[in-house]
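Quick start: what a row looks like.
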Amino acid sequence: MLGRVLVLAFVAALAQAPEAAPLERSEVSLSTRVNRAIAKGTDWLKACQLEDGTWSGFEGEHPGGLTALCTFTLLKSGVRRSDDSVRRGLARVLATDFKSTYSTSVKLLLLDALGEPRAFREHAEASLDFLVETQVAGEWAYPWGGADASNSQFALLGLRAAHRMGLEIPDATLVNAVKALYRLQDEKHGGFKYELNRQATGGMTAASLGGLRVLEELGEGRSSVTALLRKFQKQHELADEFMVERWHPGQNAYGPRAWTPASQYPYLWAVERWCGLTARAKLGEHDWYEEGARWLVDEQGDDGAWLGTQETCFALLFLRRATISAGAPAGTTPEELAKEIDALRPPRPIEPQWDLPRITDWLVAGPWRGEGQNDALLKLPFDPAKLALREGAKVAKRTWVRQSFKPDAWVDLDAVLGAECDHGFAAVATGLVWELDRPLDALLWLEVEDPWRVFLDGALVGQSQRVQGPADGRVSVPLRLARGDHALLVLVEDELGPAFFGARLTAPDGKQLERAPHIAASPAKAKTR
């Protein structure tokens, strides 16, 4: 997300491997799988480069930024300086008039990575001057908008690169940056926010902690900086605790309780930068690099990419530990080993059969508000095991209303209820009748953005605190139905905006059930048990 966040990467040479029988997953080391992932990722990046040497994207907002990022990533990934992709990318970067914090900062990272400070001093000085001049109240912003922690984290990276190239950073720039960073901290929980009115996230907290380490490094020997950093020592420790307690490679912490898949790859790179700059091997009992690397190699696409160009750069930079690693000569990937490792890729995740209709007959009630953000489902105003699932029945001062949902699209529960569910939740329920003696195993697929809970006959069978996820219908919950009537209750929290909801029922492989249960909101059991 050059519009939100940019980053860094590496490719290690693979050793020659003799011909052998296909390997079991346990026989292939993580380092071998990582090296293969890096090799495939850099090959994909090269293939995306345009004939003029650029990579397309965000040229209106950040001219030259994506090209600088990709060139930097290839260089840090072990691709030689003499490689045609690096040479052409660098030529375009040097010929571009940079106009944003992101682009300018990544240009400095690239120039520093080249290891020739004298050759690029004029470019580096102009970039440093831009960053110093565009700082406002200690922060950096988009050319068209307000300041935020994401722009600021990149500016600090740029300042560090300029410093490594022998350029002097003004004291006032560093002092003001320290003050601005701590203004964005959640004083109660310790995490750092993108902007004042946002929730703290793992990505912004790791990025800010990394930024603070940069300020410590640049502030060495400057009493005004070091004294100010000491003043915030307790707040720094609280932020550290936030990250240790909430670290998960596939879940970017969102506030004190929830998580979000948004900015997942910038989040991992921010963790790599923070832990790399502070020489931190573990977060609590967790080996952050090993856990993150395992997640990333499993997420890589068959073509070598992770989602898109920027995400691929972010993933490569994490895998390479680019913050503390230098580039290295790229080796040749043995075709035999590549095939063996590719054979170890995890099976593709099950997806629902997309042309199957959604469940349409529901009872709906709500909304109920939480006391804060992302806490509405943590203390329910009713006992799910004792609800009367019946049209017109009362439930915690609300009334069940029977609704017919669309079979071919998700619905907005705000519109269904005629009330905003923001920072609250709605309840939807229906009845399932299974008439055979053998139990039915099925998957319930949900289209939801934010936290949810699923209850079958009053028992919790699935839940998530994910926030701002894609409502793409890929969330699934396994259900087992014995013969008889069953009550299905889904609680759907809403952070902001539309309260997305849709649901399908499929076989365990995601395909149509050979025989489906009868689904109807009414008649249903008077109670869930």
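That is the whole record. DSSP finds 15 helices and 20 strands in the chain. The CA atoms of residues 49 and 55 lie 5 Å apart.
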